[in-house]
Amino acid sequence: MIKDFLKEYFAWYALYFLLVITFLITFFLYHLPFSYFITSLLFTGTITILVSIWQFYLYYQKRQELAANLLLGKDSLLNSPLEKAFLAHYHNLEKEQLQELSYYLEREKNLQNLVKMWSHQMKVPLSAISLMTQTNQLNPQDIDRQLLSLDNYVDTLITYLKFHHHKTDFRFERIHLKEVVVEIVKKYRLLFLHKGIDIEISGDWVLKSDHKWLSFAITQLIDNALKYTKKGGKITIRMANSLVVEDTGIGILKEDIPRLFEEGFTGYNGREYQKATGLGLYMTKRILDDLGLTISITSDLDQGTTVVIKN
Q1: Cβ atoms within 10 A of the Cβ of 152, count?
Q2: What coarse category fits the chief subcellular location reported for this protein (predicted)?
Q3: Contact between 208 and 172 (Cβ < 8 Å)
Q4: Is 129 exposed, middle or buried (0-12, 13-18, 19+ CB in 10 A)?
Q5: What pLDDT, on the 0 to 100 scale, is given for residue 274?
Q6: How far apart (Å, rounded) are the C-alpha atoms in residues 57 and 114?
Q7: Measured in Å, how far apart are the chain's first and last C-alpha atoms?
Q8: Tens of pLDDT along 77-108?
């Protein structure tokens, strides 16, 4: 510690010794009484030693204060302008680190809850397939529907994890949106047939976007329309410099609409029908924001829901 102290105040001690040498040369050149120099040296040397002892004590106390992390005390010894600037910077860094730690802890908690929720969601189609096997009622169409549900859950989970690790791989290209929509509808054809839901597709929209991520976002919208449209209903998809997905489903409560894009929000319908994960629309909004597109939702209870995507 003494070595560090000397390094800290090296400039002052060097200045003192420089002054001593200067006075010694002056006394020598002008043939002044050397006894006066010795007396002055003893006097200034004594003062220097006493001040050094006091400064070393303060230095030791400051080191102890730093080591004990007692930087929030009102009686802090760190009170010079430079030290106060250091404390302010230290507190800002500490606050940022605490906020970052809180964010990561909250994210870890959300991921744990997500895994628990996903385990429950994926058990439903797995249990259905298991029941079919046990009762020897292996209907290929029923199995395909359950496998489609599993595929959607896994795809959503992987996409969600990519979001939280900032792993997006956008590749913009010219896209005919009708081709994307038709591809998704074909993927869900068994569900359309199973629930007897009519699908009407009209128009087209040519835009520059990322095929994979845009497809994921639209898949979430069509998947929601299918979930909440009862048997015999209808889903209409129109395209003309925008995308409109309209269904004749159960609708959404007015008070739930402003919160639809919040992470983990399921709303009344999601809780009532046990079909929502609270992530689909959240990720859809995130993707569309990154793609430079906007999304809006209007709905009337027991009348249906309309989703509009546009530039």
Answers
A1: 19
A2: membrane
A3: yes
A4: middle
A5: 47
A6: 55
A7: 65
A8: 666 776 777 777 777 887 888 888 887 787 77
Q: Which two tokens stand for residue 310?
A: 């546009």
Residue 276, amino acid: A
**Distance between CA 218 and CA 23 in Å, rounded?**
87
218 and 180 in contact (C-beta within 8 Å)?
yes
Query: Distance between CA atoms of 133 and 190, rounded to whole angstroms?
Result: 20
CA distances from 75 to 64, 72, 88 (A): 14, 9, 15
**Beta strand pairing status for 198-203 and 234-239?**
parallel
Strands 206-210 and 234-239 come out as unpaired
Other residues' Cβ atoms within 10 Å of the Cβ of residue 260: 23
- Maximum distance among all Cα pairs of the chain, rounded to whole angstroms: 120
Task: Report which of 257, 305, 264, 297 is spatially closest to residue 282, judged by C-alpha positions.
Answer: 264
Residue among 238, 217, 240 nearest 288 (CA): 217
**Alpha carbon distances (Å) from 232 to 90, 199, 304:** 64, 11, 13
Separation of alpha carbons 14 and 20, rounded Å: 10
What mean pLDDT is predicted for residues 173-189? 93
Q: How confident is the model at residue 22 (pLDDT cuts 50, 70, 90)?
A: very high
169-310, what's its fold? Heat Shock Protein 90 (3.30.565)
pLDDT in tens, 26-63: 888 888 888 888 998 999 999 999 999 998 888 888 77
Choose among 172, 185, 156, 182: nearest CA to 286: 156
Tokens of 9: 């105040």
Report domain extents, the chain: 2-70, 83-144, 169-310
Q: CB atoms < 10 A from the CB of 127, how many?
A: 11
